[in-house]
Amino acid sequence: MSKKMKFSKEDVLTADDLDISSAKIRITTMVDKVVYDALKREAKANGGKYQTFLNKILADHFSRKGSPKGSLEERLSRMEKLIEGQTKNRIAAKKTRKVFTTKKKAS
Fold first, then answer.
1. 8 occurs within a structural domain
2. Where are the alpha helices (DSSP H) in 13-71?
3. 27 lies in the same domain as 53
4. Residues 19, 59: one domain?
5. Closest CA to 21 of 65, 62, 49
6. What is the pTM of this model?
7. Is residue 19 part of a domain?
8. What is the pLDDT of residues 67-107, one digit of tens each?
9. 106 and 76, same structural domain?
10. Cβ neighbours of residue 65 closer than 8 Å, sequence gap 6 or more
11. Segment 48-75, tens digit of pLDDT
12. Domain ranges, residue 77
């Protein structure tokens, strides 16, 4: 005699279950022995498994650096530093020219 199955009236899957950003896939890759040892050592020091640690490293890298040149914030910061440095160099060059011109006139 077969059993009757009861089906729930509630949704079995939640929206979180369908969120592909939380989906994990299994991969196989080759890494250098020194890299593997370093991953294991760092993961152990942080109280975790090396696969989880590697996933965190990769996730952090790609969330911060969506493009090869870095995140928008990082790129803007580099540009600001570059502009600031160029401005300081121009001001220093103008001061040097003034001093040099003044000394030349005094001679």
1. no
2. 33-45, 50-64
3. yes
4. yes
5. 62
6. 0.43
7. yes
8. 556 667 777 888 888 888 888 777 777 777 766 666 666 65
9. yes
10. 71, 74
11. 899 988 988 888 777 765 555 666 777 7
12. 69-107
